[in-house]
Amino acid sequence: MPIITLAEVAVSFGAVKALSDVDFRIMPGECVGVVGHNGAGKSTFVNVINGRLSPTSGIVNYAGDNAQADFRNADRARTVGIRSVFQELSLCPNLTVLENLRIPYRNMPLKNWRKEAGQVVKKSLDEIFPGNGINPYSVVADLPIAERQMVEIAIAFSQRDIDARLVILDEPTSSLDGSIAEQLLSYIKRFCEEGGSIIFISHMLGEIFDVATRIVVMKDGRIIDDNLVSKFSRDTLVDAMGHVVPDTPEIQVAKKNRSFGEEVLRMENGLSARKGEIIGLAGLAGHGQAEVLAACTLARSSDWLASRNPQVVFVAGDRARDGLMPLWSIMRNLSLQTLVEFSRGFWINRIKEASLADRWHSKIGIKTDNLMNPILSLSGGNQQKVLFSRALASSAPIVVMDDPMRGVDVGTKMEVYRMIRSEAEKGRTFLWYSTETDEILECDRVFVFREGEIVSELTGDEITEDNLLRTSFAMQESIQ
């Protein structure tokens, strides 16, 4: 029997149709990969499944129960074992890891519940991420984003009053480095082999092909293809999504033929950058890269007042914590970095602000029909586009990027890569930390971090996936 069935489900927000005539079901043991570009309807789709959203029309059937369109099904979804890990992490930052487990664990005994919660979450963490080293008594706000994502995943899979039957994972590896992501993918396979089911949303097509038994392709709020993974290749999957992803050789050729200007950055740890250079920060997550980015940014932007001539601009990867103004509009979020350029005293030239927002709306393809809509009305990937636009619209000569491609689809990534390369050719310098090897390979020079120190500097043909892995895992002390 299917765990859940959707029949002719539609969801509308006013005049905007987020889902149209969606039919879907998932059986025990299946891992269904869900792909589609930003704004394709993936988040709305899974929020109907987990009961957070009621469909405007259609039927949601949980393990044999008919639920009409006007019935909110969150409690029913919970009782049949449906759990979710959202792209925007939902942990309470002021609580400890084990206290966050206590919130969904309704039947935990009152006596000594902390001890039991600590044991449950530690067991789940160790099963999924061996050697993780996360203390269940740690406050979530004190954890790096990769560990917060690991905690949320572990809580979703944890054994409690109702066992997990279907776990929805929305971009679960977006903050994880390669080795930790591999641990998760291995666990997903084991979970499905034991009869569990997964809905796996990712822009990392390699991960989709690795774990999925079936792939659902979404576009404009519809399921346009639903087939076994063996029926797809990477090219046919990209074609089905409706966005042509350019090959990268021309970018690599352009990279090799470039020259750079004078040195514009040098730090005490040996990291340096020249004008027009794209510098990559590699290594396992949590090994000091974020601290270096923060030090570089704060050293050049310590004034609390915005400058008309900023020296550095920052693109956050953890957009909810470090990037977005959640109560503001899309336009206000986009123009924040450049408002001082449009102002005289306390007066802001709204015409120039709107012109800037319109220009970047078109240039980077933010999917909205009204820039005055709330920023949270956008999908995660489109929110990230706004942060990129905010940074690139400024005049700062140095752009610092902290794993900025989280939740951005493959086609948009290629467009952003080209935009970064174009800006670099004009003399802009980029400092780019990423957990994705493909992004590090786009850089002109790479510094590999381990245990808070730079252990290797790679240039030119030395920047390969093999060398990055070797130096990250201390398998080789130097690159010959």
Automatic annotation (TrEMBL):
CDD domains named among the record's database cross-references: ABC_Carb_Monos_I
Alphabetical keyword list: ATP-binding, Nucleotide-binding, Repeat, Sugar transport, Transport
InterPro entries hit by this protein: AAA+_ATPase (IPR003593), ABC_carbohydrate_import_ATPase (IPR050107), ABC_transporter-like_ATP-bd (IPR003439), ABC_transporter-like_CS (IPR017871), P-loop_NTPase (IPR027417)
Xref: Gene3D superfamilies: P-loop containing nucleotide triphosphate hydrolases
Source organism superkingdom: Bacteria
Pfam families listed in its UniProt record: ABC_tran
GO MF, any single term: ATP hydrolysis activity
Span of domain ABC transporter: 4-245, 251-476
Record-given protein name: ABC transporter ATP-binding protein
UniProt organism field: Thalassospira profundimaris
